[in-house]
Write a structure and sequence with these properties.
The chain is α+β, with helices and mostly antiparallel strands. The protein is 49% helix and 15% strand. The protein contains nine helices and seven strands. A hairpin with a 3-residue loop joins strand 5 and strand 6.
């Protein structure tokens, strides 16, 4: 079963883990094996294919692939979290953008025109699932990523977004979202900051990412319950509020994960 970040909004996107720990590795802040283990997380295995010079179908482990990217001139990694009508973080071409849209995430290299899109295969029974990930590398356009804010802009936008999301939830029958959603949100909240980002990231990036993930979790609860929106017009009005907040949260996540490479380039 193929999976995308939308399947579990409480979990960190795999492209986020690759971006954060790949940046820490490229900055010389963590050893290669530590970075690869952090990207792997609870998954069964990650492989990378399509790197320049690869034979068709050739695959590599994360440690080797990250080292190869460095040799190819990659200086950092940036996250993309695109959705329909919003190519957030992408640069093209169209074929790459389409694959990234289908996955809901991608990683773009800084210093070499390369991008990676994960194909996630989930297996196992409910409650005991794992996944294998194949990262497909291909050439991308060398240009500015679409619609990515600065970390400062993202923090400012999120402050308003979090207030609006909280206000919206107070008007809903949150219990209508169901016990599973509420339990997942409670588990997410209890995790705190410990697993956010990687060594070397500024404290502001951690704050922004925590707020962005909180907004995303709250929006998932709101979207899963009709709550106080009992008429079609009320439901449509609520959705018109949720969509911009969801976009704000995704933009902030991208800004947070990109902060380490952006900070190095600005220094």
């Amino acid at each position: 079963m193929l999976a995308t970040p939308a399947d579990n909004p409480y979990e960190e996107p795999r492209s986020g883990r690759l971006t954060a720990w790949g940046n820490a590795l490229l900055a010389g802040l963590v050893p290669p094996d530590n970075a690869a283990a952090a990207v792997l997380g609870d998954d069964e295995v990650h492989r990378v294919t399509g790197l320049p010079g690869d034979e068709p179908g050739e695959q590599h482990g994360l440690t080797w692939a990250l080292g190869r990217l460095r040799v190819l001139g990659v200086q950092g990694l940036r996250l993309a979290l695109p959705s329909a009508g919003h190519p957030l973080g992408l640069t093209g071409p169209a074929a790459f953008n389409e694959r990234a849209m289908g996955a809901g995430e991608a990683v773009l290299a800084v210093g070499a025109p390369l991008g990676l899109v994960p194909e996630v295969e989930v297996f196992g029974p409910a409650g005991d699932r794992s996944a294998t990930v194949l990262w497909r590398c291909s050439t991308v356009n060398d240009g500015p990523p679409a619609d990515v804010p600065s970390l400062y802009e993202a923090e400012r936008e999120l402050a308003d977004g979090l207030r609006e999301a909280t206000r919206l939830l107070t008007r809903l029958d949150v219990a209508g979202a169901g016990p599973e959603a509420l339990q997942a949100l409670d588990a997410y909240r209890r995790r705190g900051h410990a697993e956010l980002l990687a060594p070397g990231y500024p404290a502001r990036a951690v704050r922004v990412l925590e707020s962005a993930r909180q907004v995303s979790a709250l929006l998932t609860i709101a979207a899963g319950s009709h709550g106080a929106a009992v008429s079609a017009s009320e439901m449509a009005a609520r959705q018109s509020v949720l969509d911009p907040l969801r976009r704000t949260a995704r933009r902030a996540q991208v800004a947070a994960y990109n902060a380490l490479v952006d900070e190095r380039q600005d220094s």
